[in-house]
Amino acid sequence: MMQEAVKSMVSPTKLKSMRVENGWSQEKLASITGLSLRTIQRIEKEGKCSVESKLAIAAALNMTPSELLHDYPEKVGDGTLNYGGIVGLLSILGLFSLLVAWEWKNPEIFINPMNALFIGLTVFGLSMMSSGFQATVNALGTVVWIFKQPQDQLLAQAHLPVLRRVLVYCYTAGVIWTLTEVVEAGFYGSQTSNNSMSLNDILFSMQSLLYAVMLAEFLIRPLINRITWLLSRQD
Predict the structure, then answer these.
(1) Cα–Cα dist 126/111, whole Å
(2) pLDDT in tens, 133-186
(3) Which of 47, 74, 60, 65 is nearest to 21 (CA)?
(4) CA-based angle 154:220:177, to the nearest 5?
(5) Partner of 173 for a Cys bridge, out of 41, 75, 80, 122, CB 3.0 to 4.6 A?
(6) In angstroms, how far is CA 24 from the centroid of its own chain?
(7) Which of 90, 34, 74, 80 is nearest to 57 (CA)?
(8) CA of 45: how far to CAs of 9, 14, 15, 38, 96, in Å?
(9) Apex CA 195: angle with CA 193 and CA 200, to 5°?
(10) pLDDT tens profile 96-108
(11) What gap in Å lies between CA 41 and CA 163, rounded to an integer?
(12) 48: which strand partners?
């Protein structure tokens, strides 16, 4: 009986924090889980729920049910190196270098510092507009955690909402600058004798989107997952 009671408990603080990190209201969480608003409100207040409700909430938040039982640790990280992160980065850089070397006669196919700068500055600017300068700098500064754990870092979870917005802004920047380059290619194509732009122009315009996706999936998402992993450790 006692075991069943433990299974039907969640941390109200953890649940509310995770809901806020996802940018969801209680109504939104209720809609996603199929639970009533009153049930969500009661769980966030008392921490008591049925096993079915706990499973539904955990699935919506992309967590294991056991993670909902524990509050975030006060401090995370022991300052050790993450060799997996180092090897992973070197592997990705090695693959990208191999790709560029394959096209050594035309490296500009994949290397365009100006496009990369536009993507980076756009993402940084959008994040500052929504989260503020200091929060953005602090959140992006956690990128070193992929390679080396912080030392007794306080409130590591505070960076997650910022980084989740940055993830969205990566795709926003990619779409915006890709469309901009398509419009530009179309304009200059209209000035040619055949009054059209080539398929090569359109494909080359997607370089910005490629950079945006690489930034999102090779850096920001692994960073979010890294912080989430550190916060999930209960040792």
Answers:
(1) 24
(2) 999 999 999 999 999 999 999 889 889 889 999 999 999 999 999 999 888 877
(3) 60
(4) 135
(5) 122
(6) 16
(7) 34
(8) 12, 11, 10, 11, 49
(9) 100
(10) 899 888 877 888 8
(11) 27
(12) 9
Q: Which of the 8 DSSP states describes residue 48?
A: B
The two structure tokens encoding residue 220 = 């920001």
Percent of the chain predicted with pLDDT > 70: 90
- Number of other residues whose CB lies within 10 A of the CB of residue 4: 8
Residue 43 and residue 49: Cα distance in Å, rounded? 6
Please name the residue that has the structure tokens 């960073």. Answer: 223
Interatomic CA distance for residues 136 and 60, integer angstroms: 27
Over the stretch 69-95, which tens digit does the pLDDT of each residue have? 888 888 899 999 999 999 999 999 999
Interacting residues of 180 by C-beta distance below 8 A, sequence separation 6+: 208
Q: Residue 234: how many CA atoms within 13 Å on its side-chain side?
A: 7
Six-digit token pair at 57? 């909430």
With tokens 């209680």, the residue in question is 26
Give the whole-angstrom CA distance, residue 105 versus residue 90: 24
- The pTM assigned to this predicted structure is 0.78
